[in-house]
Write a structure and sequence with these properties.
The protein folds into two domains: 95 residues, no CATH class; 117 residues. Helices cover 23% and strands 25% of the residues. The chain is elongated and about 80 Å long. By secondary structure, the protein is of the alpha+beta class. The two termini are 35 Å apart. A five-stranded antiparallel sheet has the order 5-6-7-8-9, covered by helices on one side. It has a four-stranded antiparallel sheet with strand order 1-2-3-4, covered by helices on one side.
Length: 218
């Protein structure tokens, strides 16, 4: 059943209502408004006189899930030290977390490009500007990100994941060659959603790779 958490929300409220009975004022059709921070439709559920609750499947209005209730006691008080949070706040947190999924893809791809550049530099006098030359089989564009190598020379290579959606962070990879001819790599993610490529400072062979302004190392 899709949107399990939404249905669970309806069940939680129903359980709080308690046992339905023929004379109960809770018998009837109810809805839960999940707030403005979610695009989910309100949860509709029906409380019947026979102590059963029916939750309508949001993806298929012709399907209802039956839930049997048994009243345990008349005590409606919550346990001590329970933190009460608005449903909309909790759902918004989940939505925010889910947005990190595409960013995880970008961090993984950029990390792979970094490692491939390190291997490439061992055999070549310079890093490469061509993703295909690294032999990874990575697509230059996915549903959420487009990938490119912003710059590559004998000292450093910079790969960039540009989000295709304005609410996603950008991801940057820097591989640098040090004085002892060893390479060091870092992956950076923008602190705020951003589709613009950052300005990169010039570096010398003695400089360690660093994240530009507005980015943090992952």
């Amino acid at each position: 059943m899709p949107q399990i958490k939404t249905v669970a929300t309806g069940l939680a409220l129903t359980l709080a209502v308690g046992c339905a009975s023929p004379e109960s004022t809770y018998v009837g059709t109810w809805q839960i408004d999940l707030g403005e921070n979610t695009t989910d439709s309100p949860v509709t559920f029906h409380i019947a006189p026979d102590q059963k609750v029916y939750v309508i499947d949001q993806s298929d209005p012709e399907v209802a899930y039956e839930i049997s209730l048994t009243k345990v006691n008349d005590d409606w008080n919550l346990p001590e030290n329970v933190e009460i949070l608005p449903i909309a706040q909790d759902l918004h947190s989940d939505n925010s977390a889910s947005q990190n999924g595409p960013a995880t893809e970008a961090v993984t791809y950029i990390g792979a490009l970094n490692r491939a550049q390190q291997a490439y530099r061992l055999e070549s006098p310079e890093f490469t500007t061509q993703i295909d030359a690294l032999g990874l089989g990575i697509e230059a564009e996915t549903e959420f990100y487009s990938y490119q190598i912003l710059t590559a020379n004998d000292l450093q290579a910079v790969a960039f994941a540009r989000p295709t959606q304005p609410d996603l962070p950008s991801v940057l990879g820097v591989v640098a060659l040090g004085e002892n001819q060893t390479t060091t790599a870092i992956v950076c993610q923008s602190l705020e959603p951003d589709q613009a490529a950052p300005t990169l400072p010039e570096r010398s062979a003695a400089d360690e790779p660093d994240c530009p302004a507005g980015f943090e190392e992952t």
